[in-house]
Design goal:
- The strands form 5 sheets. Strands 16-17-19-20-21-22-23-24 form an 8-stranded mixed beta barrel, surrounded by 4 helices.
- It is elongated.
- The longest helix is centred in the N-terminal third of the chain and has 39 residues, at 210-248.
- It is of the alpha/beta class.
- α17 links the parallel β14 (539-547) and β15.
- It has 4 domains: 8-205, Orthogonal Bundle (Arp2/3 complex 21 kDa subunit ARPC3); 249-408, GAF domain (Beta-Lactamase); 445-583, Reverse transcriptase/Diguanylate cyclase domain (Alpha-Beta Plaits, 2-Layer Sandwich), CATH 3.30.70.270; 589-834, Alpha-Beta Barrel (TIM Barrel).
- α3 crosses α7 and α18 (587-601) packs across α19.
């Protein structure tokens, strides 16, 4: 067995070790022969054995194990015969000379490998002699003990050779199963020793019978080689089928070429593969892809678009270009090639052998497919490989052409898709693409706020009518460039149609950031625009909507930004944020208006409650009743959505009466459970104008059997100031029944101290916008302190809304605030849930542990 080539310095070390091993065993194996030796005729002479060793070395069997090629010869036959008949020293000399003649003259091995093999043969022969001489005591070459000794000696030599090969492969990073090597060595040594014993018997008793034995051996060798060729052909066809299947699944030229390189290397078992593509009538390739031991993967060495690729310094030798490109011929150069031009090609390529075939498409040669450096040192490319490779190149050319067709079709499809998704004039995304990106931005799991800006140019129609559509198009392109420059990579700019544009800001830090962006856009568009023939100044109106503040429906969000844009245009403000209170034409509001009436009449509007507690000890003294609507299709709808609809459609009276009725019914339940709580109900300004309202309240108190002291009505400053004289009269009528009144959101309306003194109110509620900033904003703290002092001077009770943390509560206590309301106690919850909470936390702040509060947030 012969290993792959080794570097010189490692070869010397291995050779020295093998020679030293053989030298140690030489005294045991090279002693005088017994009397039985010497009856082998020409086998007893060193020159006869030399000839037999040379012939046996030529008739070799190539076996591939894990991409490693190894040679198993009949050398064990003359070795076994020499052990039986020849002088040990002559046997050693004959093997070294006979094997060296073949290695030098037939295989033309390099010096390092030749030295290694000779050293290995020396060690194997001395080991075999030492074992044989130790076991053979009869001196009879045909005795069964002699046969057994010969088998042991040859076996030891085979094991030593297999071990040396395995060590060489491992040292140089290769992988091979040692069991496979040892199994192959055992089989070949056993077969060859058996042949040798048969030959020994024939030599001793019937030498003429050697002739048919040699004929049989020759026929077996020929049959094996024929079987090997058939096996290789079948394996090649199987691999070719796999190659066609794999490359047929590629969908782009690059992917196809990489697959071709990989499969060609695997199919021909080579170290390197290369594809060079040529333009018609060009002698240098515009693209070279290669793969090999120095490349992690196939690499495009030009790295340029197809239209821009120029000549590459990596090129094929002249002989390959001439025969493959010009004549479309296959070129096969084995490692045993002796022709000077072939040797020059291999030297220029830095290869041991080479196969190159044309890639033909449409009857023209469009490229070259080549493989180099057949794996292993014992086989090279032959005619069978050439025929297989030519078929492979034809399949590769078809796959590559199909890949090009697919690539062209994909390019056309991409162009059509781009046209379908972009504005032809400005190149910006159109409405369709903008809407897709808006949907993705809203659905993104990590989104913060998503802003949508809609822009409309003021006076664009005048430009078109006066200066023509060509000037109008130039103006639109300039506007598109300015928008893109302002937005850059922070969002998407689109042209919706005509002079209307849109901007998507998918990662807003807040509505304020979106309004700042809208202001920058407004300022950029309003700057004079230089056109080829004149300078124009044009205005723009920008409307903004944001998700989730203004909804999470993409179509609705775009529509609301459009509504805000028209608000900006009507108000001539330049920039406008969507205001739901002014958008009475939205589909959402129209739907709510149609379904809210049924929800009120079917009593589908629920009433939830939020506790109000003393600031000092946390004892709950009352609750605020809050309307909640859970739509069967739309889910929970915020009061800020449906209450304005109720006010605009006239349902606010019926809705308020419904909430009051449910709140008083819950107050009756609490009274029966021993909890005397005051229930506060908001009274909208529209209801205050109803002169019959006091009577309706008294009637409900009577029907629900709730004392008037358990009811508080909350009114707003702005509601009172619309008609203060009339409101004061109506409120006094209400308080005369024992109902208490409070001013809600104090400090946010248009207060008048003169009227405040006349109002029959007992409580003021500080708006949550001031309370939330109490600990971090000196101005807010000053307002809260002033309201508390003013209320005390007027003999009023103060309730602070929106208390959410301990520091705010502590600050309110320091300011002597009476009552607090907010998430620190509880979120609004249904009546039964609040009943359970009151039962568990009725004693005040001492029972409001942080872990319990978290259950209500």
């Amino acid at each position: 067995m012969r290993p792959r080539p080794l570097p010189a310095h490692r070869t010397l070390v291995l050779c020295a070790g093998l020679v030293a091993f053989g030298a140690v065993l030489a005294p045991y194996g090279l002693g005088p022969v017994s009397s039985g030796h010497g009856n082998g005729g020409f086998l007893t002479s060193w020159w006869g054995l030399t000839a037999v060793f040379s012939v046996a070395a030529i008739f070799v069997f190539h076996v591939e194990i894990d991409s490693e090629a190894h040679t198993f010869s009949l050398s064990e036959v003359p070795l076994a015969l020499g052990l039986m008949f020849a002088d040990p020293r002559e046997l050693l000399l004959a093997r070294l000379v006979g094997e060296a003649l073949v290695l030098i003259g037939w295989e033309r091995q390099s010096a390092p490998k030749l030295i290694f093999n000779i050293s290995l043969f020396f060690a194997e022969t001395t080991a075999a002699l030492a074992v044989f001489r130790t076991m053979d005591t009869t001196g009879d070459p045909v005795n069964w003990q002699t046969w057994l000794a010969a088998l042991a000696g040859v076996g030891i030599a085979a094991v030593l050779g297999a071990s040396a090969v395995w060590g060489v492969i491992r040292v140089h990073g290769g992988r091979v199963d040692p069991g496979q090597l040892l199994q192959a060595a055992a089989i070949t040594s056993g077969v060859n020793t058996s042949l040798a014993t048969i030959a020994a018997v024939l030599v001793a008793y019937s030498r003429p019978a050697l002739v048919p034995l040699l004929v049989i051996v020759g026929m077996v060798v020929a049959a094996y080689r024929g079987y090997t060729r058939l096996t290789r052909r079948y394996a090649g066809l199987e691999l070719l089928y796999q190659f066609t299947r794999i490359t047929g699944g590629s969908h782009s030229p690059d992917e196809t070429m990489h697959q071709v390189l990989e499969e060609a290397s695997r199919l021909l078992r080579t170290h390197r593969a290369l594809i060079a593509l040529y333009a018609p009538h060009e002698q240098r390739p515009w693209l070279v892809l290669s793969t090999g031991p120095d490349d992690d993967q196939a690499t495009d060495v030009t790295a340029q678009p197809e239209q821009a690729r120029g000549p590459t310094p990596r090129d094929l030798p002249e002989l390959l270009r001439r025969q493959v490109l010009d004549h479309g011929q296959l070129v096969l150069i084995p490692r045993t090639a002796a022709e000077p031009d072939h040797r020059a090609v291999l030297e220029e390529l830095g290869a041991k052998d080479c196969l190159a075939a044309p890639l033909i498409s449409g009857g023209e040669v469009t490229g070259v497919l080549a493989v180099f450096d057949r794996l292993g040192d014992v086989s090279t490319f032959d005619g069978e490989d050439g025929r297989l490779f030519a078929t492979l190149a034809s399949q590769a050319a078809v796959a590559l052409e199909n890949g090009r067709l697919i690539d062209r079709l994909q390019t056309q499809i991409q162009a059509r898709e781009h046209e379908a998704m972009h504005d032809a004039l400005t190149g910006l995304p159109n409405r369709t693409l903008f809407f897709e990106r808006l949907c993705r931005a809203i659905e993104h799991p990590d989104r913060r706020q998503v802003g949508v800006l809609v822009l409309d140019l003021d006076g664009f129609k005048d430009v078109n009518d006066t200066l023509g559509h060509h000037t109008g198009d130039q103006l639109l392109c300039q506007v598109a460039e300015r928008l893109s420059a302002v937005v850059e990579d922070s969002g998407t700019v689109a042209r919706l149609g005509g002079d209307e544009f849109a901007v998507l800001l998918p990662h807003l830090d807040g509505v304020t950031a979106g309004l700042l962006a809208a202001t920058r856009i407004n300022e950029a568009i309003r700057r004079p625009i230089e056109l080829p023939t004149m300078t124009l100044a044009i205005g723009v109106s920008v409307g903004m909507a944001a998700a989730p503040d203004h909804g999470s429906d993409p179509a609705g969000l775009l529509q609301r930004a459009d509504v805000a844009m028209y608000q900006a245009k009507r108000g001539q403000t330049g920039v406008s944020l969507y205001d739901p209170n002014t958008d009475w034409n939205s589909q959402f509001r129209l739907r709510l208006a149609g379904e809210l009436r049924g929800a009120v009449r079917e009593r589908a509007i629920e009433v939830w409650y939020q506790p109000i507690a003393r600031a000092g000890d946390g004892r709950v003294v009352g609750v605020e009743a809050l309307a909640r609507w859970h739509h069967p299709d739309l889910g929970a709808i915020a009061p800020s959505e449906f209450i304005p609809v109720a006010e605009r459609t006239g349902l606010i009276h019926e809705l308020t009466l419904h909430v009051l009725d449910r709140a008083l019914a819950q107050a009756r339940v609490w009274l029966e459970q021993g909890m005397d709580l005051r229930v506060a109900v908001n009274l909208p300004p529209q209801v205050l104008r109803d002169v019959e309202w006091p009577a309706k309240v008294v009637q409900l108190l009577h029907e629900q059997r709730v004392p008037a002291r358990c009811l508080a009505l909350e009114i707003t400053e702005s509601g009172i100031m619309t008609d203060p004289e009339r409101m004061i009269s109506l409120l006094r009528e209400l308080t005369s029944t024992g109902i208490s009144l409070s001013i809600d959101d104090f400090g946010t309306g248009y207060s008048s101290l003169a009227y405040l003194q006349q109002l029959p109110v007992s409580t003021v509620k500080i708006d949550r916008s001031f309370v939330a900033q109490l600990t971090g904003d000196d101005a807010a703290a000053a307002i809260v302190s002033s309201v508390i002092e003013l209320a005390r001077s007027l003999g009023l009770v103060v309730v602070a809304e929106g208390v959410e943390d301990e520091p705010t509560l502590a600050r309110l206590n320091a300011l002597d605030c009476h009552f607090v309301q907010g998430y620190l106690l509880s979120r609004p919850v249904p009546g039964p849930e609040l009943t359970r909470w009151l039962a568990a936390h009725g004693s005040g702040w001492a029972d409001l542990h942080p872990d319990r509060r978290s259950d209500l947030r």
